[in-house]
Amino acid sequence: MTPELREQEERLQFDRFDHDDAWELGNLLVRLARERGLPVTVDIRRGDHQLFHYALPGTSPDNDDWIERKIRVVRRFGHSSYLVGQSYRDRGTTFDAEPHLEPALYAAHGGCFPIIVKGTGPVGTVTVSGLPQLDDHRLVVEAIEAFLESRGAEKSPGS
User: Fold this and answer.
1) Which residues of 33-48 are buried (b: 16+ CB within 10 A; e: fewer)?
2) Which residues contact 94 (CB under 8 A, 6 or more apart)?
């Protein structure tokens, strides 16, 4: 699974990312979650600046805590929180079993994906919390894919 996760980060990169992009991506995630009846919290940041945050029914402040912990992992390692956790599982251990970081502050659980701008690198995060970790990750990836596809359609000739 790790090669697939690395491929996602290579493929899912933005030409730019600003406040309006955060609003559109955040609303897309909320719409997907509403349509499926998913109890998730969505958070999008550029650097330390929170540009979008929405908690759907069925969530709690615990989701905000998970979001903060997942974001710290992405910022520290530069990869999705699920990829970081999977890299430990691939080695026969877990992120929490390693004594290097405080589990109360860091969670290598799926759901936080780096916002990578081509030619620049990671500039922010998009995070979902509320589902099993693989489902959180998949929802974020699906939304980024749809968002980037819609951007590609806007650039195509004759549109």
Assistant:
1) beeeebebbbbbbbee
2) 85, 88
Beta-carbon count within 10 A of 65 CB = 13
The values of phi and psi at residue 127, to 5°, are -135, 140
**DSSP 8-class letter at 14:** B
Q: Measured in whole angstroms, how far is the alpha carbon of residue 101 from the centre of its chain?
A: 20
pLDDT, one tens digit per residue, over 25-43 is 999 999 999 999 999 999 9
The answer, as to whether pTM is greater than 0.90, is yes
Phi, psi dihedral angles at 16 (to 5 degrees): -160, 165
Residue matched to tokens 């929405």: 54
Nearest to 24 by CA among 37, 42, 38: 42
